[in-house]
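User: I'm writing a tutorial on reading structure tokens. Could you give me a worked example: one chain, its sequence, then its tokens, then a sentence or two explaining what the tokens reveal?
Assistant: Sure. Here is the example chain.
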Amino acid sequence: MKFETPAGTNPIDNLRYVGQPLDRVDGPLKTTGSATYAYEWHENVSGLAYGFIVAAPVAKGTISAIRTETARNAPGVLAVITGRDVEALGKADRNAATLLAVDKIEHYHQAIAVVIAETFEQARAAAYSVKVDYQPAPGHYSLAAEKENVDTPVQDEPDKNIGDFDQAYAEASVKLDATYATPDQSHMAMEPHASMAVWEDDRLTLWTSNQMIDWCRTDLAETLNMPVEKIRIVSPYIGGGFGGKLFLRSDALLAALGARATSRPVKVMLPRPVIPNNTTHRPATVQHIQLGADSSGLITAISHNSWSGNLPGGTPETAVQQSELLYAGASRHTGLRLAQLDLPEGNAMRAPGEAPGL
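And here are its predicted structure tokens:
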């Protein structure tokens, strides 16, 4: 790419905003602790109740029984809701796994129930008394172990080839052939995933922490099998998202189910230990890089293949994208490979593809 015409003056050159000491609209609220986050809308409702998640104790298996008698009879408990207690829920395309398991456990710490009580402490104590009988099943958890079984491109993500890489690489004066690996990485925002739900007749208002309001609204409507126009999402502040709050997650669904079951406003916050496995994360990768250059150092051949893993229906980590954009080479090959793993859902994390691929 060659630029021969001067760019000229652009709005940034005028420095009307860039470099000026401007106050952010939300700056004073955030720096004084006055901004209202998802778990803090206390003044907007009365009769607030609290929900606490019961998370799957195994990574893969079948639920035989969920014994909730002790929890239901615990002090302050208003309801215990399992996947078997509600009408069949839908699953949005943007969720690889169901947000509330019924019989099948798809990953560790998948939500299998929620306890609603008068106080947070009562909900938590009762949730810990819920007993789950399950039949564990063997699973696949190692990308390295599954890598050799995956040698075809991802559906809808065909390999990209320009020129003849094999020939250009064979003829290159200088060659590099290396394999690199990056680990799984989990979000841990300052603000946990949290939601508060209120029903008014058949209309739902959800205060939540979400980066994509319309996705949250449409996916919640699909999950609850209700008209999207009857759902309102409120999320003016996010205490850290970076991709981890792009999608509808279990806190929002459990708050909505709890509020509907108790006819009370209900809020649910995911505990810190549950967040890495109940929400999305950046998947691990194994990347094979081959570079060929002539004696002057000019790259003549590039190949970049990346393997990652996800649940059925999940997407790959797009680690090869930056090789397509940043490097020249007359002969090029990039490809994505996706292994099926029984780990929590892999999805966007800040600079998806770029962070592990650069």
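What the tokens reveal: The two ends are 21 Å apart (CA to CA). The mean pLDDT is 96.
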